[in-house]
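Hypothesis: this fold can be encoded by more than one sequence.
Test: take the C-alpha cells below, design a sequence, compare later.
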C-alpha cells in the first residue's frame, strides 16, 4: 500500500498534471490521482516516454483516475464515452496507471432495485470490457449513509458484499472503490474486510466521521481527516487491507474544509485533556 493524493478530494486546485505531481511530492505523498484526458493529450503531444518521465523524475506513482465515461445520463452520452474510452485506457496503460473508479448512488427515484441493478450491469459491462483490454481495473464505490439511502424512493446497493456481487456480474476486472466512511456507515466490520481477496479492492479512500453523531444520522459530506476523531476504526481497516495483500493507493477523502478539520482535532485533544 502507498499514500496517494487526490487534489480535488482535499479541496486543492491544480492547473495541470505537473502541478498535481509537484503538490503530491511536496506534501510527502507517494502517488497522485491523474486527469486521464490531460494524460492522453500530453501523450499525443509529447509522447508516452515524456509523460512517464514526469512521474519518475518526481518519484511519484500514477495512482488512478476517475472513470471518464458518462454512464449515468443518456444512452447517447454513454455510447459517445464508450467510443472515446479506448484512447483514454490506452493512455493509462502507457503510464502504468491501471486503476479507475466511480461511485454509485444507493437509491433512485426512477428505478426499483432489480431494474436499477440491470441498468448498472448493462452500462458497465462494455466499459469494463474496454478497460480490461488495456489491463485497467474498475472500482465501484458503494455509498453507506442512511440519510442518503432514504432520500429517494427506491433503495439500491449500499453494502460491500452486494456491490461485489454486482461487480462479478459485470466483469473479472471489476472490484471495489473501498471507502472507510461508507464501510463504516453501512455497518461494515473489520471481519468483513478479512474476507476480501486483494484483487477485489481496486482503490481505497480514508477519512473520519464527526464525534457524537449516531450511525444512521451521518451526512455524506460531513467528514474529517483520517484519524481526526477516532470514530472510524481506521487502524483496523488498514491492518485488514495489509493482511489480505492490498498493494494499491490509500487516498484521503475528507471533504469538508480546513476549518472543520481543525475544529475536529481540537475536540479530540479537548476531550483527552478533560477540558
Amino acid at each position: 500500500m502507498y499514500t496517494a493524493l487526490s487534489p480535488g478530494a482535499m479541496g486543492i486546485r491544480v492547473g495541470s498534471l505537473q502541478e498535481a505531481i509537484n503538490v503530491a511530492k511536496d506534501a510527502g505523498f507517494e502517488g497522485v490521482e491523474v486527469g486521464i484526458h490531460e494524460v492522453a493529450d500530453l501523450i499525443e503531444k509529447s509522447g508516452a516516454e515524456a509523460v512517464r518521465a514526469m512521474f519518475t523524475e518526481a518519484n511519484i506513482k500514477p495512482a488512478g483516475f476517475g472513470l471518464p465515461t458518462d454512464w449515468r445520463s443518456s444512452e447517447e452520452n454513454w455510447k459517445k464515452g464508450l467510443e472515446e474510452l479506448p484512447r483514454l485506457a490506452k493512455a493509462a496503460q502507457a503510464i502504468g496507471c491501471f486503476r479507475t473508479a466511480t461511485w454509485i448512488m444507493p437509491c433512485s427515484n426512477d428505478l426499483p432495485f432489480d431494474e436499477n441493478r440491470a441498468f448498472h450491469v448493462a452500462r458497465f459491462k462494455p466499459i469494463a470490457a474496454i478497460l480490461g483490454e488495456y489491463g485497467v481495473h474498475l472500482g465501484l464505490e458503494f455509498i453507506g449513509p442512511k440519510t442518503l439511502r432514504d432520500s429517494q424512493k427506491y433503495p439500491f446497493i449500499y453494502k460491500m458484499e452486494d456491490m461485489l456481487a454486482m461487480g462479478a456480474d459485470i466483469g473479472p476486472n471489476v472490484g471495489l472503490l473501498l471507502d472507510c466512511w461508507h464501510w463504516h456507515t453501512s455497518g461494515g466490520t473489520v471481519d468483513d474486510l478479512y474476507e476480501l481477496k486483494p484483487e477485489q479492492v481496486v482503490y481505497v479512500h480514508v477519512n473520519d466521521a464527526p464525534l457524537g453523531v449516531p450511525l444512521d444520522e451521518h451526512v455524506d459530506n460531513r467528514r474529517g481527516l483520517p484519524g481526526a476523531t477516532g470514530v472510524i476504526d481506521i487502524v483496523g481497516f488498514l491492518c485488514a487491507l495489509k493482511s489480505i495483500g492490498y498493494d494499491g493507493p490509500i487516498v484521503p477523502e475528507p471533504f469538508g474544509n480546513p476549518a472543520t478539520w481543525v475544529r475536529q482535532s481540537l475536540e479530540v485533544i479537548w476531550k483527552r485533556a478533560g477540558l
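The longest strand covers residues 61-66. The CA atoms of residues 128 and 171 lie 6 Å apart.
Hypothesis status: open.
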